[in-house]
Amino acid sequence: MRAKTLRRAIVTGTTLILCLFAASICRLTQAKDPWQRVYTGDGTIIELNSTTLRFGAANLLRAHFRTVFSNAESIPGDRGQKYKTRLETIDFRLTDRKYRFVEISLLDSGGKPIQTKTVDASEDWRVLKPGGITERLFTAACSFTPLGSWKVIAYRFAEGDPKETKSAPDLDRLIGASVYLNIDSAAVGNRVCNSPSFQDKDPVEDESLRHLGLDWKSIGIRREDARTIDVRCGGEGWQPARSLLVKDNNREEMLMLWDGVFLVLKRSDGGALRVTHGDGRPTLKRRQP
């Protein structure tokens, strides 16, 4: 009897371990999926590739979207072919809330490209229509890292002897401070910038980052694993007027260079992403290039 009970306990324990392992693998797989749903409509789903969002020069934000249709759609002017998925690369101009398509690809039900159109650089910029689909996509794109609400949980020294940089009491007071980053304004504690600009930099090749003298080893990030974003304040809210965001692609935390010290930031808004839903009208039939 005891042997039978023991075998049953072993089987039960093994089954539980396998279930937990399978759940962990499932969560890991989901976490690695770069496509995040940002819109659900009548027969359509729109997803955003969160890993390819990039800030460019002249205050541009480039985003990649994937629209999947429940039923295959006919290609305009060619009723013989149908597509099930549309991939779009869109540039948003942050200064005046305008946008333009960069590239559009249509894929069949098997995921094979059947048509790709690259838009000419002279294409006119379009105004975001209030309440329209593209405005919703823009809002979704602005909810991903580095934008959003953060909290300082620790600090790291960028270089040199800590005693020569700041006194420990001054640094300790930064712990718990709120950091808010948005395309319209940014704040670190009570220091507010009303005209921030963001631009992604190449952590390996960008010369401006080399001048900062970053000690990658001391901040605990491998340069090849980092996404670096230059942040500048056009007004007088920040001194110094330039900061740097460093996101380790292997971690959820983000570093922010602030007055000679890297603040360790953790999300305080849960990611801020909100999936929007359509109202049943054919709002996805928007004008294309």
Index terms:
289 residues, alpha+beta, Lipocalin, nine-stranded antiparallel beta sheet, 6 helices
How would you characterize the overall build of this protein?
The protein has 6 helices and 18 strands. With 289 residues, it is an alpha+beta fold. The chain has 2 domains: 110 residues, Lipocalin, CATH 2.40.128.710; 120 residues, no CATH class. Strands 1, 2, 3, 4, 5, 6, 7, 8 and 18 form a 9-stranded mixed sheet that branches. It has a 9-stranded antiparallel sheet with strand order 12-11-10-9-17-16-15-14-13, with no helix packed on it. A hairpin with a 2-residue loop joins β16 and β17. The chain is elongated and about 70 Å long. The N and C termini lie far apart (76 Å). About 11% of the residues have low confidence.
What fraction of residues sit in β-strands?
35-45%
In the predicted model, the low-confidence regions spanning at least 5 consecutive residues are: 13-31, 160-165, 280-285
The Rg value, from CA coordinates, equals 24 Å
Query: Distance between the terminal alpha carbons, to the nearest Å?
Result: 76 Å
